[in-house]
Amino acid sequence: MAASDEGYQHIEHGFEPVFDERSSVLVLGSFPSVLSRANAFYYGNPQNRFWRVMAACLGVPVPPNEGDPLADSEPATLDASIAAKRSMLLNGGVALWDVIESCDIKGSSDASIRNVVPIDIGRITAVAPIEAVVCNGGTAGRLYHRYLESLTGIKAQVMPSTSPANAAWSLDRLIAFWATAVTWRPQPHHDI
Q1: Distance between alpha carbon 144 and the CA centroid of its chain, in Å?
Q2: Would you state the pLDDT for residue 1?
Q3: In the chain, which end has fewer C-beta atoms inside a 10 angstrom radius, N or C?
């Protein structure tokens, strides 16, 4: 292995997108972090402000992270946390995925991403009436523009990253900025 390859791993995304036939806004990250890959769900680092930002934009309570106390004082399991997060997004008309299906990466560093294989965005656009694409951070925005924008025909709104590494943006500032692109949209309920 060449010295420049040191620390790189080829990683597959590893878990499914969140969407249904009512999703009208598609939020795209770049690629899941090490912790998100371990949890097999998006934004697994409790320090990432994504779930707090989305809850504020959608006007609902913040879904619990694993270990957070629930109404019955029991700690939320990982499965309960994922179910609450998925439900919040779907009820708000929001789809969630990442731009990259697989890549070479060092740890969780977006700056190290190379050898990108983009997602099959048609999996969502064939089912959901996507009206807006919102990218979580500049890396996701650049990758979306390079690989997917020509397939969707939708110019993305690139939002400041919710990552804890983006310390220049307070939670309140993030919420105010994100709310310009993601807001609660009443969704028709379908009986199953």
Answers
A1: 13
A2: 42
A3: C
Cα–Cα distance for residue pair 192/184, rounded to 1 Å:
23
Mean pLDDT estimate for the chain: 88
Torsion angle (degrees, nearest 10) of CA 147, 153, 155, 156: -60
- Listed in sequence order, the residues at least 6 apart from 28 whose beta carbon sits closer than 8 Å to its beta carbon are 96, 97, 98, 99, 133, 134, 135, 136, 140, 144, 148, 156
Per residue in 89-145, pLDDT tens? 999 999 999 999 998 877 666 677 888 999 999 999 999 999 999 999 999 999 999
CA distance 41 to 58: 20
Span 35-55, mean pLDDT? 91
Most confidently predicted of 70-79, 128-137, 182-191: 128-137
Q: Give buried/exposed letters for 75-95 (b at 16+ CB in 10 A, else e).
A: ebeeebbbebbbebbbbbbbb
SS3 per-residue string spanning 42-92: CCCCCCCCHHHHHHHHHCCCCCCCCCCECCCCCECCHHHHHHHHHHHHHHC
Single out the residue of 128, 120, 125 nearest to residue 153, CA to CA: 125
Residue with tokens 């804890």: 164
